[in-house]
Amino acid sequence: MLAGNRRFAQGEAEHPWQDKDTREGLIDGQSPDAAVLSCSDSRVPPEIIFDEGLGDLFTIRTAGEIIDDAVQASLEFAIESLHVSLLVVMGHEHCGAVQSALAALNANESLRTGFSEGNNVDELVSDSIVVRQVGASILAAQTADLSTTDEFERVHVARTIERLVSSSSIIQEAIASGRVSMVGARYLLTTGKVEVLSF
C-alpha cells in the first residue's frame, strides 16, 4: 500500500487492476488484503491515494472516521469473512470533522465540562456523534498539552483504534492471534503522502 501511495504522491500512479478482465474476475467474490476505515472527505479516497485497484481494499468511510455499530460490524466482517490481514484507521490533514468539533468545543463550555478522561464519549453533551467522538479526542489531546490540529488528528486516529479494539472481541482476538495487524495512518493533503502512525 505504501508503494502505491509513493507512486500516487509522485504523480506516477499505475491505476492497477481496473480493467474489464479484473472486474469480471471479481464477480463471484472478493479477497481484499486490507480493510481501511477512513474519513468520508472527498479528497481522501483510499483506493486512489494508495493506487490500488478493484478488489484490493475493503473500505469503510465516515466523517472523521468515527465508529458506530455498523462500522464495527463491517470491520468484523472483513476479518471473519474476507480474512483481511491488515486493518488501517486513517485520518487526514485539514480534517473538517476535527475543525467542526473544535469549533463546537470552543463555542460551548458544557461540552468541555461534561468530559473528563475515562468517561464514555457519549456523555459529551452534543447531538452530533461526530462532535462527541472527535471532540473527546481533542479534549484528550489538550489534556496532554497538545494544541495543534495536526496533533488532534493524530490523537483521534489513536483513540479510534483504542475504541475499536476495546469494543470488539473479534478484533481483539484477531490481533492477539497474529491473524490481523492494525495500524494508524494520516494522509497529508499538502504532499499526497500517507504517514504511518505508531502508538
Structure description:
This protein has one domain: Beta-carbonic Anhydrase, Chain A (3-Layer(aba) Sandwich), CATH 3.40.1050. It contains 9 helices and 5 strands, in the order ααβαβαβαααααββ. The longest helix has 19 residues. It starts with a helix and ends with a strand. With 199 residues, it is an alpha/beta fold. Helices cover 45% and strands 15% of the residues. 37% of the residues are buried. Helix 5 packs across helix 7. Strands 2-1-3-4-5 form a 5-stranded mixed β-sheet. A hairpin with a 6-residue loop joins strand 4 and strand 5. GO terms for molecular function: carbonate dehydratase activity; zinc ion binding. Keywords: Lyase, Metal-binding, Zinc. This is Carbonic anhydrase. Its cofactor is Zn(2+). It comes from Bifidobacterium aquikefiricola.
Topology:
Blueprint (H helix, E strand, L loop, with lengths): L1 H8 L10 H6 L8 E6 L6 H4 L7 E6 L6 H12 L5 E7 L3 H12 L1 H5 L15 H15 L5 H19 L1 H8 L4 E7 L6 E4 L2
Parallel strand pairs: 1-2, 1-3, 3-4
Antiparallel strand pairs: 4-5
